[in-house]
Amino acid sequence: MLLPKQYRCTHSAACICVKGHLSEDAIYLVFQHLNWNPRLIALMSCVCKWFDEVAKRILWKEFCRTRAPKMMRDLQSSGSHSVDGNWKALAKLLIYCSGCSQRTLFDLTHVPGHFVYKTRFSKTLGKSFLIPQCRKDVLYVSDLCEHLDQGDDGDVGFFRGVFESFSVSRVRKMLIDRKASLHPTEVCPYCKAKLWNMLQAKMIPRSACIRLDAYDDSIECYVCLNGHMLGACTLQPLSDSEGASDFEHKFSD
């Protein structure tokens, strides 16, 4: 259902939008036909603040609902028509791996952020990131985005996630009770909110390492004030290929 409220462009008189906007209904139908293409939504958002508001309220919301329908139903199961943070931030989380721009957040080498073509988010995987006292919370976590052979860091993986109703979650309450510190400089790459350090709060269970096939104590993880999670880990190497070489040798004879 489209909202009837109209927004006026706040750009200068030189802005082309002063000659009138398309109706929100028309914009909706155009982008529905384009299958909510994120690149085109982002381009339209740059035209003016009115278009940016339409994108935030309507287009990014429909993009999220189309790309991850079950996940969106769970995130809105409390009856809310919004999500923690905003739809634009959630859309970015669905398709963007933040990487590691500098060692102030993760103790890893530089890995540039990038868009990903397709990522699965799992509530089951999210459970492995919750300590027993918080297992009733709902957390969706992405499959690992693997970056292999990163020099001295070896094989590293990045993941991201989002909590349902984070403002009333047990994880948030425990972070506050444990007086977890907020990162002094870095902010969430998706919504720009402050970040809690889950490792410093001792809230990363060993089950997360097992599930990700990562070295023990190698997982670093942060959650922002809006419930977006991002993390990184060092992956254990693949099993020895010696057996595979012997197998190939037998068939080459």
From TrEMBL:
Q: What is this protein called?
A: EID1-like F-box protein
Which InterPro entries does the entry mention?
EID1-like, F-box-like_dom_sf
Q: Which organism is it from?
A: Musa troglodytarum
Q: Which domain of life is it from?
A: Eukaryota
